[in-house]
Amino acid sequence: MADYMTYETELNEIVGEYLHANGYEATLCSLQTENEEKGLPPMEVVHHSGFFFNEKKDLLLSYSSGDWETFFSIWNTLIPNLSDSDTAVQQLEFYLQIHFAIFPLRTATEVEDGVGITMKRFKIYLATHGAELSHHPELLPFFALPSVQNPSSHPTFQKLFTNSWMCDLRTKLKTFLEKFEKCPSDEPRLLVLYKTMKQNKRDSLVERGSLVSGTVHETQCRRYAQLLANYQTLLGITADLVDSLEGALRGRPVSPDFIEGICSRFMGPNYSGFDICRPSSAAECIRASIASMSLEKEPVDVPLDIKRLKEDLVGSEECQRVFLLQALRWRLLRAKFGQPRDSVLHEYIFHDLLDCNLEVSFMEGFLGSSSSRTQQATIRLFNSIAAQHLGQRYLARSPALLGAIVKIVKSEEDALIQEPALGVLQKLSMMRSIQSFLIGADTMHWLLDILHHIYADGESLSVYMQEVAASLFMNLCKCTAGKRACVDNARSVLRILTDLLSHDVPDVSDEYQSQIQELISMQAVLVI
Q: Measured between alpha carbons, how far is 58 from 179 in angstroms, rounded to an integer?
């Protein structure tokens, strides 16, 4: 908000400039009024150098009526500096000054300013701009105009009083206004900012596309170079084999060393030699290498019909449901780490496989199922998804599923179900929102009881259970609510922390040891 207040005046002026440029005068007046009511500095509406319809109309009307003040008031506002650098504009402005200086002499109607006043203005103009105008020889004769008593009868100035000269000058003025009106630099700043933003966005997309194209191009170049090298190697081998066949036709025997060299060149480092006593052993080695290369090709995953898959999961028998859940987990885990695995997970999330975007998920029924096989297959799928950061964010969308997992952790006695469920919570516990959720679900007290049974009572639990429980406890202690829960159970926390330091728990790293030291140093814990 403070940044907005800093630039508010300038932003209002930019908007005001746009409104004025497009003729929204009533809207501009309302903006200026509200600006004053808010106590902001008066708006200075910048008149950009472009000519719009109203200004162009007023200039031409002032030209025809001889209104010098109105004409040059608009002219000097719209192009204050252009006449200092543009030769064509200087000449046009000079002739316009002549037009207004002799206007009372040309017309039969009376003009408010007499000839003396108009000529005096022209003298002032020559005094201020004469140095620049003196570089144009065609203008020099007109410098004497104010000194001539009757310019209309003077041979040098007679053409100035003809209708054709006045019409030609008006045409030049109109052409200049039309040309100057289309100059891109004369657009309102708001329009310039908008066009710049659009252009930057296009440039960003082009640059991003260029980077992607460059990466693809480099990959294709490497593949092409490899194919070219293989092609040249095969050509060389083919030529040697043709020479060998021609020699065999002439009675020259083929030596084992020659076959050895051919096989070595063809198979590269994978070649381990052949048995000369076995017929066609070299050919078998080559065919076997080609077969192994074809087997190593990456299988291409077929896109899943997630909608039908969900229907099958809900409506199928237990055995088929377990197989489907297992297949979904294998599809994720057996994909290569990196882009292939990310693609599988993206597919699951995009189609909302677990219904995490809904208030009620069909997976809640699987987690609370009376069938241990269904529970185990479901929680193991969750654990595999939670192993990736994107999957953690996806699971965090559904408090209902998280609550079902917490319930399993607290109540389940089957280690095959409880351990992966605890693993899911541990993976998600690095997120601040999940930490608050778990502490609100009274997970801290359950962890304190588990850790107490492990280290104080010597209860036998798996190493995985010990490591994950300790890690989850440390993660929850990082937030303020977790520290507050430790203070409420300071005696139990102190006993467990000392046990953690004294026991050899492999997953308690230096980071967790520093966290333990921080908790022990808390005043509420030390007083126990």
A: 17
Contact 100, 68 (CB under 8 A): yes
- Where does residue 414 fall: left (phi above 0), alpha (psi -120 to 50 degrees), or beta otherwise? beta
Most confident of 13-17, 285-289, 397-401, 453-457: 397-401
Lowest-confidence pick of 105-114, 189-198, 370-379: 105-114
| CATH fold for the domain made of 314-477 | Leucine-rich Repeat Variant (1.25.10)
Q: Which residues contact 322 (CB under 8 A, 6 or more apart)?
A: 373, 374, 377
Write down the H helix ranges in 66-188: 68-78, 87-106, 115-133, 163-181
Total Cβ atoms within 10 A of residue 515: 19
Q: What is the pLDDT of residue 232?
A: 83
Closest among 308, 394, 380, 305 to 345, alpha carbons compared: 394
Q: What does the angle CA 238 – CA 244 – CA 247 come to, to the nearest 5 degrees?
A: 145
Answer whether 97's CB lies under 8 Å from 122's CB.
Answer: yes
Higher pLDDT, 120 or 501: 120
Query: How many angstroms from the chain centroid is the CA of residue 60?
Result: 50
Outline which parts of the chain fall under CATH 1.25.10.10.
314-477
**pLDDT tens string 231-271:** 888 888 888 888 888 888 888 887 777 777 777 777 666 65
| Contact (CB, 8 A) for 371 and 318 | yes
Handedness of CA 336, 339, 345, 350 (dihedral sign): negative
CA distances for 252 relative to 246, 255, 261, angstroms: 9, 9, 18
**Which of 474, 498, 461, 462 shows the shortest CA–CA distance to 425?**
474
pLDDT over 90, % of the chain: 5
Q: How far is CA 14 from CA 48, 75, 193, 195, 496, in A?
A: 11, 21, 10, 15, 65
| 513 to 305, 347, 481, 498: CA distances (angstroms) | 47, 39, 20, 11
Average pLDDT of the chain? Answer: 77
Q: How far is CA 125 from CA 117, 147, 196, 262, in A?
A: 12, 14, 40, 96
Q: Amino acid identity of 231?
A: Y
Q: Distances from the Cα of 173 to the Cαs of 22, 56, 69, 141, 167, in angstroms? A: 22, 10, 17, 22, 10
In which residue are the tokens 């304190």 written?
448
427 contacts 386 by C-beta, under 8 angstroms = yes
For residue 364 the two structure tokens come to 């809640």
Contact 134, 89 (CB under 8 A): no
Q: Kindly provide the residue ranges of all beta strands, DSSP E only, lying in 200-333, ordered along the sequence.
A: none
Give the whole-angstrom CA distance, residue 434 versus residue 507: 21
For residue 370, give the 3-state DSSP assignment: coil
| Helix/strand/coil (H/E/C) assignment for every residue in 318-344 | HHHHHHHHHHHHHHHHCCCCCHHHHHH
Helix (H, G, I), strand (E, B) or coil at 243: helix
Per-residue pLDDT tens over the stretch 13-58: 888 888 887 788 888 888 888 888 888 877 776 555 444 566 777 8
